[in-house]
Specification:
27 strands, 9 helices, 387 residues, Thrombin, subunit H, alpha+beta
């Protein structure tokens, strides 16, 4: 049996907010939770928030991340906090923390996986992990690849990059009552029943293909041998839209990049233009990749979230969902505005009353059989725990 509860607070004082969340969890579950997953705005003092929450409900494990928009099936806002709590006789959990993502990802991944207990839990055949990373530390694609290798491909992964209310300054992951930068946290979920992970985005190519001819990390220097911004400027002219180099984000939010993988498109959000015409993106783009400038609509984003949810439901193989986590990009929320609520509502409607919590992230993580895996931008990722 699995018991779950979703909680939300718009209290502005950190200690009060933590106590409010913890009290709701205690009332919702009765007994202490096996795990609490917290998403919280950068407005909070995290260690005060975490300590207060922990004191109020005494969970077995407490993990999570800073965020850029928080929601449940019934509440949604920015500058708030929400949490999913559960306890189960059919799920075992463990949590690991890896530090120094920027300097030594191998060591960070090793430390995370060292906490996993899959090799000892023979009665729990389904292995997954919720992964939250400091996206501003970079290298999230490599992090997911190394997690896959270190676990011998036996785990599904879902999660995202921590946010900070679209300030892109300093992001944190939570482990116990502490908050960490330049770090990754993972909650191992071992289950007697299948867990479901689904991925979807509503973007399609709107331009010719370009070849990435120079790149340094997240700096896209040139496309087809020309400064990268010139490709965007030509596309803006073709649409009769305005692209200002000193304030490009309004254009970029509606015209992102799609990396052609041969089996779909992995998305990257452009953020800024440098003096040399390079375009800084939210995540790395491989040298030599074929990319397109992409287009979408609010309706497409809502449909993508529905498809991600349907894919996750199918992977439960007939079992009912007990709880859901939804991750989507802060860029999606900024682009859609109030219409982002339609996406949240569409996911909630498909879950038929199952507990539902999520947040806007700086990139989304998904790796599961039959899914388009890795680190994404502007993509809906749904993770379902069985009832």
């Amino acid at each position: 049996m699995t018991q779950t509860t979703a909680v939300y607070t718009d209290c502005t004082e950190s200690g009060e907010a933590g106590e409010h969340l913890g009290r709701q969890i205690r009332e919702g579950l009765g007994d202490p939770a096996d795990a609490v997953i917290l998403f919280a705005s950068s407005r909070f003092d995290y260690e005060t928030l975490l300590s207060s929450l922990h004191a109020a409900c005494q969970p077995g494990l407490l993990v999570g991340a800073s965020s850029a928009g928080e929601f449940t099936s019934t509440r949604r806002g920015e500058g708030t906090a929400c949490a999913l709590a559960f306890r189960s006789s059919e799920i075992k959990v463990a949590a690991g923390l890896g530090r120094g993502v920027t300097s030594d990802r191998s060591k960070a991944v090793q430390d995370v996986v060292a906490a996993f207990r899959g090799s000892e839990a023979h009665g729990f055949p389904y292995r997954s992990a919720l992964v939250m990373t400091d996206a501003l530390a970079g290298h999230a694609d490599d992090l997911v690849d190394q997690l896959t290798v270190r676990t011998a491909g036996q785990y599904q992964f879902a999660g995202g990059g921590a946010g900070d209310d679209a300030q892109f300054s300093r992001t944190h992951v939570f482990f116990g009552t502490k908050a960490y930068t330049d770090a990754v946290v993972a909650l191992e979920v071992l289950s007697m029943k299948p867990t479901g992970i689904g991925v979807g985005h509503g973007w399609s190519p709107a331009s010719e293909a370009f070849r990435v001819t120079a790149v340094e990390g997240t700096r896209l220097i040139s496309l087809n041998g020309m400064p990268a911004v010139e490709a965007f400027e030509a596309h803006a002219r073709s649409l009769q839209q305005d692209l200002r180099r000193d304030a490009p984000l309004p254009f970029f939010l509606h015209n992102i990049l799609g990396i052609d993988t041969g089996d779909g498109y992995r998305l990257r959000v452009p953020l800024a233009v440098a003096g040399d015409g390079a375009v800084t993106c939210a995540a790395e783009i491989p040298l030599g990749a074929r990319v397109h400038i992409m287009k979408t609509s609010s309706e497409s984003a809502v449909d993508a979230a529905r498809r991600a949810t349907q894919a996750a439901l199918q992977r439960l193989h007939g079992h009912k969902p007990g709880a859901a986590l939804l991750f989507d990009c802060v860029a999606t929320r900024l682009r859609m505005g109030d219409q982002f609520g339609f996406e949240v509502d569409s996911v909630a409607a498909m879950l038929d009353g199952a507990t539902f919590v999520g947040c806007n992230t700086y990139g989304q993580i998904a790796r599961a059989e039959g899914q388009f895996g890795g680190f994404h931008n502007c993509t809906a990722v749904v993770m379902l725990l069985p009832a």
